Amino acid sequence: MGKEEIKSLFESFNRLNVLVVGDVMIDSYYFGKVDRISPEAPVPVVQVKRRENRLGGAANVALNVQSLGAAAIICSVIGDDRRGDDFRNELKKKGFTTEGIIDSPNRITTVKSRIISSGHHMLRIDEEMTNPLSPTDELNLIDCLETVIEKRKPDVIIMEDYNKGVLTPGIIEFLISTARKKGIPTTVDPKKDNFFSYKGVSLFKPNLKELREGLNVEVDKNDTEQLTKAIDILESRLGNQMTLLTLSEAGVMVKSGNKFAHDQAHAREILDVSGAGDTVISVASLALACKVDELTLAKLSNLAGGLVCENVGVVPVDKQRLLEEAIIHLSA
Question: Are strands 120-127 and 156-160 parallel, antiparallel or unpaired?
Fold first, then answer.
């Protein structure tokens, strides 16, 4: 791609409507410092200086979509609890509508609390429920999705699965069949539980660990032949149109039809890999909606995933920095 083509692609992101469906959560941070060991047990004492709530899970995908200039709406189910109120408040602060968020008395709002000292991740505490949605909550979410899809007319639907129970087989089947009827591309960031429920999606984005667990095979990330065979097996079972496999420091591999490509990771100072997968699926989904070729999609997603790893904590990608790097690395 030429420089002007890349700029035009980034400008086209601003015209997209994106529906993000999946497990949302609060990423809660406690920032402080350690200068002593507890007298009660041989553990460090963190003196907290600052606390911060951030949108996490599928909501972080929406933040990435928004950061890239597209309009995002989130559909999910949270708990009818105090932390659910906190989540809604965070959505409003970031300029999102809450029309796609359902409160359920049957669930709690997922919170991941991280304790950070001097840039180092000390501990994480998870509060969550991982059982699938109840039949009532599932029906309520389908009703909500029908309304949102009809009203917002999304250009792409992203399914962000964190194994917390929102993306049930029923929800997945509804989304894929509805999208197919309306000609909307669908993308998936999967987890193990529903790995093979996403039959017929446009783009499937597992990481290497998820691919190994899903297929129950050992695959060497540096062996192109093994990776290619594993993706072939995956696609024979899923019937998906494109596979984007993330390989951490080995970059990404993409397959579309009979076309394979491997894009190596770029050298970076990695501080925190949290949220990198959210960024990759966001960029890949917008690129897919804009109908770019598979290699450009892979390269752009790879660049974006690397950029967010230069930050501590879960943060969305910076569109201007991504544009600058894309011009450097993607320009013909």
Answer: unpaired
- Please report, as a single letter, which amino acid is at residue 42: P
* Length of the chain counted residue by residue: 332
Long-range Cβ contacts of 247-252 (<8 Å, 24+ apart)? 247/207, 247/208, 247/221, 248/207, 248/208, 248/221, 248/273, 250/221, 250/222, 251/302, 252/280, 252/298, 252/301, 252/302, 252/305
The neighbour count for residue 329, using CB atoms within 10 Å, is: 14
Query: Residue 88: is it exposed, middle or buried by C-beta count within 10 angstroms (0-12/13-18/19+)?
Result: middle
The residue among 204, 206, 208 whose CA lies nearest residue 221 is 208
Ramachandran region of residue 10, left (φ > 0), alpha (ψ -120 to 50) or beta? alpha
How confident is the model over 255-268, as pLDDT tens digits?
Answer: 999 888 888 766 54
81-117: pLDDT as tens digits? 999 999 999 999 999 999 999 999 999 999 999 999 9
The pLDDT > 90 percentage for the chain reads 77
What burial class does residue 207 get, using C-beta atoms within 10 Å of its C-beta: 0-12 exposed, 13-18 middle, 19+ buried?
buried
220 CB contacts (<8 Å, ≥6 apart)?
A: 226, 227
Question: What value, to the nearest 5°, has the Cα angle with vertex 239 and ends 262 and 228?
Answer: 30
CA distance 271 to 216: 30
Query: Please, which residues bridge with residue 207 across strands?
Result: 246
Q: How far apart, in whole angstroms, are the C-alpha atoms of residue 206 and residue 186?
A: 14
Residue 143 is among the residues annotated as catalytic for this protein: no
Q: What letter represents residue 202's amino acid?
A: S
Structure tokens at 201: 């999606």
* Active-site choice (80, 137, 278, 293): 278
